Queue: 2 jobs
Job 1
Amino acid sequence: QAQLVESGGGLVKPGGSLRLSCAASGFTFSDYYMNWIRQAPGKGLEWVAHINSAGTTKFYADSVRGRFTISRDNAKNSLYLHMSSLRAEDTAVYYCAAGVAADYWGQGSLVAVSS
Amino acid sequence: DIVMTQSPDSLAVSLGERATINCTSSQSVLHSSNNKNFLGWYQQKPGQPPKLLIYWASTRESGVPDRFSGSGSGTDFTLTISSLQAEDVAVYYCQQYYGLPQTFGQGTKVEIK
């Protein structure tokens, strides 16, 4: 059974940095495009970033480009999101999701940006 | 960016009745290379992550009850719940994965009347 488990969220001050991790199991991680998708409290879904199966192609939403970096380690079945220069509007639950159409989702990791 | 617009924002349907959610994209999401619509539907229940129900606009994900169906092509799509059950109370989102950035509709909240 496919499983994705996010970790690394928490409370951070504006301008700070944080790294999210996503551990995958139960499917062939190295075959899948991977995404980070976020959801601000009480709001809808916002796609954040995407990386291809080999880790050679990455795309970002305009709202995070230049501040966030997506990466993966296929040997460790893991996906990462390094977030820097964090703003209050980055406060959200961050989900990792597998697939071009997001077949599998993690439970999410809450990132709160506040002074 | 491709803008996805859902209607209505919310709807209340009696148990056993049909629920219909519409989704319109600002440009076609039909890819000429494979004649597939790059459109998915997700269900999100309170406190849970979204769950993929439908992909390629009309293909039901494994394990999804057959009361859920997707239709449409190009720019206009529909998710239908043929006979609403209590466990279907949720917010439903459409998403295009034709182009980057991938974009979602604003969501439609389905409740029991």
Job 2
Amino acid sequence: AQSVTQLDSQVPVFEEAPVELRCNYSSSVSVYLFWYVQYPNQGLQLLLKYLSGSTLVESINGFEAEFNKSQTSFHLRKPSVHISDTAEYFCAVRDNTDKLIFGTGTRLQVFP
Amino acid sequence: DTGVSQDPRHKITKRGQNVTFRCDPISEHNRLYWYRQTLGQGPEFLTYFQNEAQLEKSRLLSDRFSAERPKGSFSTLEIQRTEQGDSAMYLCASSSLDRDGYTFGSGTRLTVV
């Protein structure tokens, strides 16, 4: 069965510093991976996704993630964070019945 | 395209009462998913529909929970005889047949007192 592990429950970082949020997956089928962001009391917003092709995917707000098959990872990175990036981030994998399986989330807290 | 809409945004109910939530997916999406999210956790899958057919249900979906999508458009999730453990955010998502994107609604936050 497919699963996702987010190793860090919280990541504190200062504004303008780089950040990496880790995600490891297990899947016995073709891998489709997603990162979602959730602001307080809101639903999930898609940040970026890997379906096929280039292993490096980028979002419009400066985040990027790299699909690494050998390490079964899909870590999310941003070279310089902003206060407004403070949120909960969820990694997800699409399973063999086409539903998303989510990790437990990483709370990114950006300090001034 | 107004995205995925969920109603109500918040619901407070007394233990033992029945509640019903509604989800309106993106109109051209034929798949609709329900998830439950408790504090500090990731969303947990409950059930999903392709058009009006309910294709899969999680073990989390006890017999007090029922979901419908009668005409393949909007969906309802009903919880009967609510318990305090049902307090959570209930999220709805929809996707198209190519399933390369899942769009989530803002959720319904249920509080059982």
